[in-house]
Amino acid sequence: MQSASEERADNVAARLEAGMVFVNGASEDPLAPFGGYKMSGNGREWGEIAFGEFLETKAVIHGKAA
What we know:
This protein is an alpha+beta fold and 66 residues long. 15% of the residues lie in helices and 12% in strands. Strands 1-2 form a two-stranded parallel ribbon. It is globular, with a radius of gyration of 12 Å.
């Protein structure tokens, strides 16, 4: 996703049904939780969040604003 506004990007990311959202060309973060969403995201890998495997968690990762 691309946006000049981090606040707007966070609002859109919160509404997306996705396990991981990359904003403005952000690189992958090996410490961010990784997994799908809904039934495909039952469980997470990487990071401390992996312990809460039944939570619906989303990683929002920012790069530089356009």
